[in-house]
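Module 6 notes. Inverse folding takes a fixed backbone as the condition and produces residue identities as the prediction. Think of it as a translation problem where the source language is geometry and the target language is the twenty amino acids. Below is one complete input and output pair. Work through it position by position during the lab.
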């Protein structure tokens, strides 16, 4: 009985420590206005991104060995940042083209390191579509989704440990309980991931249009991904970026609400410029 009470006491301490840590790390996002539970400061996010970018790049074959395309990718990405509300953030954004020709994906590390694979880049046919990719990924950084996810993950680990400690004297039973709790924690995080995608779509729309790009590029990007999915080999993008459903319809509704009289003619699609730079590969 004493051992059971001791396990229960230790388990409660683990759970309380995790909950207190999660609930007290609260900050208001200066751009989105959202009150968030995060585990890293913006400075720590930058350090984490810089330390992780080389490792991530190597997982996808390194950077694409064409300085001209690398410069173009950086130019479009920085235009999305510098000419939009994203410029208010203190993150030193960098944009990278990965040489992986098969994996259709794009990534955002905390702190502003943005990546697009050659496989996804090759499916684009306008600068607005590329700006749509970057607007969406910049949205993840500005909304601090990585730091939010890490905070939830740390809470989940604390609760998993608490369940494992209090479940049983038998290590095997405790391990099974911990595995079950971990699975539940992952499902919760997946749900939040879907909400993150909707927020990043909205922010991506905002950033790319403020930078002068036609939002049709973001809609077309989602259609390109949907087309790749229907080909029988779903793009990795839809695995790392859970699809909240009706994505194209939601974006079209945002466009209609923002521009009830039609998309302004001065918003750029950039098809000719994209073809000039990319077509000579």
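Target side of the pair, the amino acids:
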């Amino acid at each position: 009985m004493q051992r059971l009470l001791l396990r229960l006491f230790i388990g409660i301490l683990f759970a309380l420590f995790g909950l207190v840590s999660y609930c007290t790390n609260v900050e208001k996002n200066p751009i989105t206005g959202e009150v968030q539970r995060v585990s890293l400061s913006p400075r720590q996010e930058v350090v984490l991104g810089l330390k992780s970018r080389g490792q991530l790049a190597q997982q996808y074959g390194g950077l694409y060995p064409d300085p001209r395309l690398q410069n173009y990718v950086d130019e479009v990405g920085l235009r999305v940042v510098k000419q939009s509300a994203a410029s208010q953030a203190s993150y030193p954004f960098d944009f990278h083209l990965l040489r992986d020709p098969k994996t259709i994906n794009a990534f955002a590390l905390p702190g502003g390191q943005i990546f697009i694979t050659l496989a996804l880049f090759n499916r684009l046919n306008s600068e607005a579509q590329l700006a749509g990719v970057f607007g969406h990924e910049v949205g993840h950084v500005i909304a601090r989704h990585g730091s939010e996810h890490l905070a939830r993950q740390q809470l989940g680990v604390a609760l998993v440990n608490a369940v494992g400690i209090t479940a049983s004297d038998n290590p095997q039973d405790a391990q099974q309980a911990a595995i079950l709790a971990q699975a539940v924690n992952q499902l919760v995080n997946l749900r939040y991931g879907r909400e993150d995608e909707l927020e990043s779509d909205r922010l991506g729309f905002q950033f790319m249009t403020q930078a002068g790009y036609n939002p049709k590029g973001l809609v077309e990007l989602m259609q390109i991904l949907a087309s790749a999915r229907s080909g029988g080999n779903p793009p990795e993008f839809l695995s790392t970026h859970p699809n909240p459903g009706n994505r194209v319809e939601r974006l079209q509704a945002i466009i209609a609400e923002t521009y009830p009289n039609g998309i302004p003619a001065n918003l750029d699609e950039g098809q000719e410029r994209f073809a000039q730079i990319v077509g000579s590969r």
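Reference fact for the lab report: The mean pLDDT is 78.
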